[in-house]
Amino acid sequence: MRHRELVKEAASLGLSVSGLSSTPYNIAVGGTDYYSLADNFGTYVNTANAGSYPYYASALGYIPENPWNNSSSVVGSSFTQNQPAYNGVSETNIVAGGGGLSSQASCQGYQESDGSCSQALSGYPQPAYQTGFQQETPVRSVPDVSLLSANGFYGASWIFCSDSTVDAQGGVYTDCQTDANGQLLSDTPIGLIGGTSAAAPAFAGMLAMISQSQGGARLGQADTVLYNLAQDYNRVRAAQVNTSAPSMMSPSAITRSTAPAVR
Prior knowledge:
Blueprint: H1 3-6, E1 29-33, H2 37-44, E2 66-67, E3 72-74, E4 83-84, E5 100-101, E6 141-142, E7 145-148, E8 158-160, E9 165-166, E10 172-173, E11 191-193, H3 196-213, H4 223-241
Parallel strand pairs: 1-7
Antiparallel strand pairs: 1-2, 3-4, 5-6, 8-11, 9-10
């Protein structure tokens, strides 16, 4: 299947957010990536032991996070500085994280006999857990949290290991094969995955571990706790440094993620 059949080259329906993630009953998970790795890999990763066990020990420290955006080869502090990324046949893509305000989701009037709304649709109202945390808006905004969504574009990705995988030729292989010392074999395949399709289930797994630690207790809408944690964190940080602190839940707000679009 050709690349163009898998990924849209340009957005065409205007600004919008996911109708599912923007409901007040869901946790919207956005995506981040590590732009710094592309030109400064050695600053953040110990290349001397990057290929040696234990692999988690290769990071030298925190790596600055940015919005996940494979659609731009250059991502600046303003959308006007962004440059589209092209593949080998000069195609663009819209592979990137998103966010914004809910719209076209709620009927504030009454439903007509044909199912339409008696007035223009509006977004989901801003839920109580977002009130006072960010700039006041009358509607729900997303995402709530962001997690690594890198898929290799800037040199980072989620890694997964599969067992007894059947390839296109019918052969069977197993990922991440190691020797007796835990060292990956030089010719072993390693599974790579990214996008918010990886970030969302990863965050769900974190919540599952929290539930498990509480004896399987139901968590309900965890946004009510997450936003309170962020507010408490920011108040403590502001008191410690006597100045405004960066938001715990918006580490990637310094850049703008854009994608090619057509009218």
